[in-house]
Write a structure and sequence with these properties.
With 355 residues, the chain is α/β, with parallel strands linked by helices. It is built from 11 helices and 12 strands. Helices cover 36% and strands 17% of the residues. It has a 7-stranded mixed β-sheet, with helices on both faces. α1 packs antiparallel against α2 and α10 crosses α11. The chain is globular and about 65 Å long. The chain binds pyridoxal-5'-phosphate. Pyridoxal-5'-phosphate (PLP) binds next to α3 and α4.
């Protein structure tokens, strides 16, 4: 965990998680390729920890302001949280959140593992009403892919009064725009795969918390369930996180400009942009087939289902059967990358020209 909370995230992303400086000591933490450690130290065994994990955990921890654990994926991080809940525990989550988490929880609901209630997260009163008696409230803002704003601050304050645990998936917003632990959230989760790692070459997740007992329990789940990350993936993410603020701000500058230009395009019926970050969702005047044609026609922007990479990517979200039916058939979720903004605009207008 960072010892210096006064530093800005731009500095922390670069300076946190480094080895202690000693003459001829390494500037970067190496990739720890050991399952086995000599007895007597704090780590003990490769499933329990290693210096590469610790370095990334220190960096993410400094950015989110909490003690951090890295996991094999964002889904594994979320699973570790659900793992702590007793059988049949009520869990409340947004009906417009990330589909992978929703699918995981639907499965737990059907098997009786958890009692899952979906709620419209943009309606703060409805969320807090549904949260009464719940064990966990799972939040995400902006919602994905509708990119609607959820009032995290008000909802978390209300949930705390009700004694309900709160976890926030901060993958889309990142700590550059909000730090939910400061609002009182118990846990912040990340798909490190996205903006933190940032190069579309690793799957990884994390959990951050300020509650030492919760940190210990989540660490025990990781240890014993064994869904641990590989040191090489962790090292890649650590390398990626050094440039995360630069990439995020460059993508954001592009996204702000492209959201403006898209709003003036005659084939675009609606632009959803939260006002920050690199994600834009926009809807077209055509049907699903026309929208597919657009997403498949781009030469620079890839037709892929991830986000937060340095490369621009987009997709028609309803091509997935699991996507919420509240989402329009013509909605394109666009993760804006760091390419030249005019090159991107030319690619977009050429693609829209196909319909
Ligand atoms: C991708 C994603 C996840 C899942 O993370 P993985 O690293 O793919 O397991 C969870 N939440 C959000 C918001 C995501 O975008």
């Amino acid at each position: 965990m960072s010892s210096d909370k006064k530093l800005k995230p731009e500095t922390l992303a670069i300076s946190a998680g480094r080895p202690v400086p000693v003459p001829d000591g390494e500037l970067n933490t190496p990739i720890a390729l050991n399952s086995t450690f000599h007895a007597g130290g704090p780590i003990g065994y490769g499933r329990y920890g290693n210096e590469t994990w610790t370095a990334l955990e220190d960096a993410i921890g400094a950015l989110e302001g909490g003690q951090t654990l890295v996991f094999a994926s964002g889904q594994a991080a979320a699973s570790a949280i659900f793992n702590l809940l007793p059988i049949g525990a009520p869990v409340v989550l947004s009906d417009e959140g990330y589909q992978g988490i929703a699918a995981l929880l639907k499965g737990y609901h059907e098997s009786g593992r958890l009692d899952v209630r979906f709620v419209e997260a943009t309606n703060s009163e409805a969320v807090l009403e549904a949260a009464k008696g719940a064990a966990l409230l799972w939040l995400e803002s902006p919602t994905n892919p509708a990119l609607e704003h959820v009032d995290l601050q008000a909802i978390i304050a209300g949930a705390k009064k009700l004694g309900v645990g709160v976890a926030v998936d901060n993958t889309l917003a990142t700590p550059l725009t909000q730090r939910p632990l400061e609002f009182g959230a118990d846990i912040v989760m990340h798909s490190v795969t996205k903006y933190f790692a940032g190069h579309s070459d690793v799957i990884l997740g994390s959990i951050s918390t300020n509650d030492p007992a919760l940190y210990k329990r989540l660490g025990d789940v990781r240890k014993l369930s064994g869904a641990i990350p590989g040191p090489f993936e962790v090292w890649l993410a650590l390398r990626g996180i050094r440039t995360f603020p630069l990439r995020f701000r460059a993508a954001e500058a592009n996204a702000k400009e492209l959201a403006k230009r898209l709003a003036g395009h005659p084939k675009v019926s609606k632009v959803r942009y939260p006002g920050f970050g690199g994600m834009i969702s926009f809807e077209l005047t055509c049907d699903a087939a026309g929208t597919d044609l657009v997403t498949q026609s781009a030469k620079i922007i890839t037709n892929t289902t991830s986000l937060g990479g340095i490369e621009s990517m987009w997709e028609r979200r309803r091509r997935w059967a699991t996507e919420s039916h509240k989402i329009s058939e013509s909605l394109i979720r666009f993760s804006v990358g760091c390419e030249d903004v005019d090159d991107l605009w030319d690619d977009i207008t050429a693609s829209l020209g196909k319909i």
